[in-house]
Design a protein that fits this description.
Elements lengths: L8 E6 L2 E6 L10 H17 L2 E6 L10 H4 L4 H19 L5 E5 L2 E3 L1 H8 L2 E5 L3 E3 L2 H4 L7 H9 L1 H10 L2 E2 L1 H7 L4 E3 L4 H13 L3 H15 L3 H16 L2 H11 L12
Parallel strand pairs: 2-3, 3-4, 4-6, 5-7, 6-9
Antiparallel strand pairs: 1-2, 7-8
Length: about 260
């Protein structure tokens, strides 16, 4: 992760933003075991030294998914263990200490879509296309997509993509809820960095609560979720940073929210 062209994952800091790149453009950034382990190291490093991170892909594509040549050679138990390893590493993104933003172009396919679904904000440019071709390959998603993607776009839409092999445009995926922003070609990374900087400016405890309480509350009963919300609301409000920010707002030292521009 020294930024060299030989690294499977490159890593650099831009202020308090960590930029993590899948760096196998000749393979459309397909994810192998070595790639996912290098990604794990980059994610752990970002949690230690950044306040937000951006995951993106080198070259024309974000990620074409699982490295099938490697997958074909695995014994059954190794395949199960490999899938569980993806789950743990992607959980470290989704429920870690800092926000992650994905910048996507070209292929966002299979495991690449599963990786993007683990991020908190997804930005795609107009070259992006989304696919889940596992049904045509005789396999099934194994990187958390059956949970994360299904919750983003719905199990029926996900099933449609897997059964038919259809690809989905960024505009359609935004309507379905799978991505947050669609930008002109070549602008996904710039927009993702801007969004990461905005998230990084929040109080760390607020971000931690957003990343870790919201998905857990979603999985709870309504009554349990409301109880946990009360606890998190109280915990975040008593931090020194929260008190300072609230005082600044009340004393009109911070800008008020404005209506979005058309």
């Amino acid at each position: 992760m020294d930024g060299s062209s030989e690294a499977l994952i490159t890593y650099r800091l831009d202020g308090d933003i960590a930029l993590i790149a899948l760096n196998r453009p000749e393979k459309r950034n397909a994810i192998s075991d070595r790639v996912v382990e290098a990604l794990h190291l980059a994610v752990e490093r970002a949690q230690d030294e950044a306040r937000a991170a951006v995951i993106h892909g080198a070259g024309a594509h974000f990620c074409a998914g699982l490295d099938l040549a490697e997958h074909m050679e695995k014994p059954l138990i190794a395949a199960v263990q490999g899938s569980r390893r993806w789950h743990r590493i992607f959980d470290g993104i989704e429920r870690g200490a800092i926000p992650f933003v994905c910048a996507m172009q070209g292929a966002v396919v299979g495991g690449g879509f599963e990786l993007a679904a683990a991020a908190h904000i997804r930005v795609a440019d107009r070259t992006a296309f989304f696919g889940l071709p596992e049904g045509q390959r005789g396999i099934f998603v194994g990187g958390g997509g059956a949970v994360r993607i299904a919750r983003l776009i719905g199990a029926q839409r996900m099933g449609d993509m897997m059964l038919t092999g259809r690809t989905v445009s960024p505009d359609q995926m935004e309507q379905w809820g799978g991505i947050s922003y669609v930008v002109p070609e070549g602008q996904a990374l710039t927009r993702a960095i801007d969004l990461a900087r905005s998230a990084a400016s929040n109080a760390p405890m607020s971000n931690y609560a957003i990343l870790n309480a919201l998905p857990r509350i979603r999985d709870m009963s309504s009554e349990d979720g409301l109880f946990v919300e009360s606890l998190m609301s109280s915990l975040t409000s008593v931090t020194p940073e929260a008190k300072e920010r609230l005082r600044d707002f009340l004393e009109k030292r911070t800008a008020r929210l404005q209506a979005p521009k058309e």
